[in-house]
């Protein structure tokens, strides 16, 4: 469906994507990366909005740059809000559907259908200025699916959505995937993407750092050097146990707070084994978590692995 | 692509037809007849036809600066660029759709202003011997030609410089359309104002206060060298087509970055 061959995109001296090579078959993909990692650049390359500085991009076997036929096979839900205060949702989606070459009456029908799918029928004739953020996001989604594309690309679709909106968006995307339609979902929040069970593409600093199923990626992440915070009733004793049985880079004990921060090269081994050893030693653990929870931290670790500064264990 | 251009025109018209924008257009249209009415009573209006042309031309250009130059930038700033250009022929539809809207809107505003001017002015103080209806016809034609060619030129600036398009357009007008047009040499013929002026002089001869138009025309011809009308029309048409073709080429081949893109 999509192939990148040693694709690099430079914005003058700033790197958008750096030597990316991948081959995506039809299916669901989660494009994960922190803000500014190159996700939107990758999407723009797929859509032919920009040209690669080096390498090639092929979408459905064609070069996407200025390829009009290709654009009707793709639906884009960008990470921006529609800004037409006096226009109704229906008029806006109809207008954008007409731009795909459909006659006004047909485009109107298609727009109504798409708005019904995203649950916006009740408000489609109201001006968009009266919409909540979630309603606008659903309207943006409607314009992307009105022509029933083969590939749907969503850039940060969960931005600004309330919990109900997130659940509804996830349900819609799950249904989309179940219909065997292709999907690329760009996000910087892992669990939002994981719910769809897509293949994951991890990107940071414009580089594709890892790819695979959620299990494979979790396994990679668990194998990365990581810091673990443990809260227990006997931190000194637990610290001794940790250094005795596991590979520990650094350990920091805060006896007053009852916590220890352990930096280890093999977090998976420690996370699975240490609680049992603590229980045997009569230590009660009340909290155990990775201190590097943010995707940004995980990506910086992956970046170090990519550069060869850190090696994966296990 | 025709469907897309029509869709852009209809959508833009829907956006234009707001009370606020119609009020601005009304103020612009009323300004020339108001000036003519004020100046008619003072006796300083020696060349009324010329003055009407200047006033309505200014309104036309002002309107084009507002509608033609921000063709790309308004879409980038309004965050609608990505939505429209992810459609087939989206870029060309923006260019031509907005161009046609700019031509229609600017012509309409300046034409209403010019028509009102001719309604309020007395036939006696006009320099030309032609009846008002004929002057109206010729001035309408000149305004239509001016809207068409300047909209193409300003659209080109909008496509190549975006953010500073208005400044560039004003600079171009001052340097080429005013300064260069006054030079009685080949370089002056690059200015579209020269061709428009020549067409006007050939049709509405008002350049001499004593109404000796044939003498005035001869003097103008000696100084600036008037071509036949069809050649002036050809020059204007060539400039329009060239500017639109160049704009189409640039808008198709250029990467435009939205704020989101510039953040990578």
Keywords:
heterodimer; A: 314 residues; alpha/beta; six-stranded mixed beta sheet; four-stranded antiparallel beta sheet; B: 264 residues; mainly alpha; 12 helices
Structure description:
The complex is a heterodimer of chains A (314) and B (264). Chain A is of the alpha/beta class and 314 residues long. Chain A is 38% helix and 27% strand. Chain A has a 6-stranded mixed beta sheet with strand order 5-6-7-3-8-9, with helices on both faces. Chain A has a 4-stranded antiparallel beta sheet with strand order 11-12-10-13, with helices on one face. In chain A, strand 8 (199-204) and strand 9 (207-212) form a beta hairpin. The model of chain A has no long low-confidence stretch (mean pLDDT 83). With 264 residues, chain B is an all-alpha fold. Helix content of chain B is 74%, strand content 0%. Chain B is globular and about 60 Å long. The interface between A and B is large, with 42 and 32 residues.
Quaternary structure state of the chains depicted: heterodimer
| Average of pLDDT of chain A | 83
Name the helicity range of chain A.
25-40%
How would a textbook summarize the main sheet of chain A? 6 strands, mixed
What is the strand tally of chain B?
0
What would the principal axes of the Cα set say about the shape of chain B? globular
């Amino acid at each position: 469906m999509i192939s990148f061959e040693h694709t690099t995109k430079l914005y003058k001296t700033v790197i958008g994507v750096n030597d990316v090579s991948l081959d995506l078959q039809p299916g669901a993909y989660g494009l994960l990366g922190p803000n500014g990692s190159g996700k939107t650049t990758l999407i723009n390359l797929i859509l032919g909005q920009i040209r690669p500085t080096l390498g090639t991009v092929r979408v459905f076997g064609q070069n996407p740059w200025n390829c009009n036929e290709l654009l009707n096979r793709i639906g884009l839900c960008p990470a921006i809000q529609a800004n037409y205060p006096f226009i109704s949702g229906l008029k806006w989606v109809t207008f954008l559907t007409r731009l795909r070459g459909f006659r006004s009456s047909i485009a109107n029908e298609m727009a109504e259908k798409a708005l019904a799918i995203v649950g916006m029928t009740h408000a489609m004739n109201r001006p968009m200025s009266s919409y909540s953020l979630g309603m606008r996001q659903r309207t943006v989604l409607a314009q992307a699916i009105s022509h029933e594309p083969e590939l749907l690309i969503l850039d940060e679709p969960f931005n600004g959505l309330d919990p109900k909106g997130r659940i509804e968006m996830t349900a819609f995307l799950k249904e989309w995937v179940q219909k065997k339609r292709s999907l690329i979902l760009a996000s910087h929040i892992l669990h939002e993407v994981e719910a769809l069970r897509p293949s994951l593409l991890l990107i940071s600093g414009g580089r594709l750092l890892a790819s695979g199923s959620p299990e494979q990626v979790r396994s990679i992440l668990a194998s990365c050097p990581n810091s673990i915070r443990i809260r227990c009733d006997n931190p000194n004793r637990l610290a001794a146990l940790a250094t005795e049985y596991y590979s520990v880079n650094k350990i920091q004990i805060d006896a007053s707070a009852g916590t220890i921060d352990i930096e280890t090269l093999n977090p998976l081994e420690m996370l699975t084994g240490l609680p049992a050893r603590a229980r045997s030693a009569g230590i009660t653990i009340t909290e155990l978590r990775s201190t590097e929870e943010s995707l940004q931290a995980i990506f910086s670790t992956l970046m170090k692995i990519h550069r060869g500064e850190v090696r994966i264990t296990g | 692509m025709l469907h897309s251009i029509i869709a852009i025109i209809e959508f833009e018209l829907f956006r234009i037809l707001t009370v606020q924008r119609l009020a601005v257009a009304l103020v612009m249209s009323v300004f020339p007849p108001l000036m003519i009415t004020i100046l008619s009573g003072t006796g300083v209006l020696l060349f009324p036809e010329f003055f009407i042309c200047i006033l309505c031309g200014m309104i036309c250009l002002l309107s084009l600066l507002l509608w033609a130059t921000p063709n790309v930038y308004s879409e980038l700033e309004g965050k609608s660029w990505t939505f429209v250009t992810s459609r087939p022929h989206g870029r060309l539809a923006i260019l031509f759709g907005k161009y046609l809207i700019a031509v229609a809107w600017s012509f309409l505003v300046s034409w209403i202003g010019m028509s009102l001017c001719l309604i309020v002015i007395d036939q006696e103080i006009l320099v030309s011997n032609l009846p008002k209806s004929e002057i109206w016809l010729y001035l309408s034609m000149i305004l239509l030609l001016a809207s068409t060619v300047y909209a193409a030129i300003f659209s080109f600036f909008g496509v190549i410089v975006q953010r500073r398009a208005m400044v560039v357009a004003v600079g171009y007008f001052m340097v080429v359309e005013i300064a260069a047009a006054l030079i009685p040499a080949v370089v002056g013929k690059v200015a579209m104002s020269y061709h428009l002026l020549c067409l006007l002089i050939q049709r509405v001869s008002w350049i001499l206060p004593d109404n000796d138009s044939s003498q005035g025309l001869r003097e103008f011809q000696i100084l600036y060298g008037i071509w036949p009308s069809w050649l002036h029309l050809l020059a204007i048409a060539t400039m329009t087509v060239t500017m639109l073709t160049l704009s189409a080429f640039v808008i198709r081949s250029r990467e435009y970055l939205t704020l989101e893109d510039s953040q990578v």
